[in-house]
Amino acid sequence: MKKILFFKVLGLAALFTACSSEEGEMKILSNDSDVTNELNLQTLNYEHIASMLTDVPHSGKSIILNDGNTKTWEIKVSRDEKTTISGLDDAILYSGRSKDSTFLTLASDYATLRLTHNGQSINYVAYKDKDKMEEVARFYTKEFASTRALSNVNNVTYIYNESTRAANKDIACVVLNMGEIIEAYRSEYEDSSSDCIMPKISKKMNESSHIVTRTPAEPKSVYVVCLIEQGAQLLPNEVSWQMQDAAEALYDISDDYIKLDFKLLQSDFVATGDNADDKLESFRAKLLSIEELAPYDDQMFYLLHYGMWESGILGKAWLDTYRATNARGEFWASGLSAVTAIYPGVLAHEMGHNLGATHVADAEDLMRETAHTIRGYKHLDEYNRYTILRNITWEE
């Protein structure tokens, strides 16, 4: 008998059929006013971020960021109304204007702020529950100790809750200096030049020589099912960062044709094999073996894992296997993705492969081969952008 218990327990079918417009526990107020508010980055906590984001109107909201000293700057935050996340997470995604280089997430139990300012990339992570906040803070301290930094700047610092007693202050937020962390920790990783596989089958294409494309009244909702590998311990905020990077990269090309509906689930899957290629094959084979998933074989499926899948390999995906129309099916639009703070954009990179994007040399491009430094968040290569647009366009 096939092992499908985890899908039944979590109600996967219900997740697929649930209306993607449901708001969950957090209600977004309809307020079209453009209100200016302020976040002090030295006293940041979950409540502060939540209070700024729970009333962001459709037109966006201006927020003043204050570093706690003398510097302030303004960002304009908008909610990502196309992307939904459900299952084990309920995060809502927000971002600033392109020039702001700012990304935020708000879930019922955590909130984050990722920003690049004055040449520094800083991530703020705040959990609502003080015990969970303590656990997350200690995890990051253990993973990214300041003694390995390339300068005297701390990799990880804490913001304490000023309302608690001075002798035993609760941690309210952890601050990650991502630029320093990445420089200190990435030297052990190799490039990703072999992280995609061309399927050994012919492409399922429209046979007509007269293809007419159209812009739908509403973008087509595409399920992106993210399964956590059995035994993997992943932080929810790091998973939602990967999802946000993927959505931002796709919508930068076009948000007219498809929108991403992420489903985050715990699984009993364990990818088997001697290398990442074998593990990708085994993941697809497991998906094919579950009859209940057959109706969704043309959607995107990814297996999530902490760290590398093998030496130097952070992800692996089939190349050019997703099309909005004339879908290939049979779970070819699938891949493996590492989830870790020091590698933003891994899921976005592998999804790019599924959508037809190949590697490029441009250091600022999401599809750059090597990941020794921070990749860009966007597809810059014109041919890759054309290929992705072709694959997400509706045809008649």
UniProtKB/TrEMBL annotation:
Record carries keyword tRNA processing: no
The UniProt record lists the keyword Hydrolase: yes
InterPro entries tied to this protein: Fragilysin (IPR001843), Fragilysin_N (IPR032273), Fragilysin_N_sf (IPR038176), MetalloPept_cat_dom_sf (IPR024079)
Top EC class, one word: hydrolase
Residues covered by the Fragilysin N-terminal domain: 39-178
Keywords (A to Z) from UniProt: Hydrolase
E.C. designation(s): 3.4.24.74
Alphabetical list of Pfam families matching this protein: fragilysinNterm, Reprolysin_5
PROSITE patterns: PROKAR_LIPOPROTEIN (PS51257)
Molecular functions (GO terms): metallopeptidase activity
Protein name: Fragilysin family metalloproteinase
Native source organism of the sequence: Bacteroides fragilis
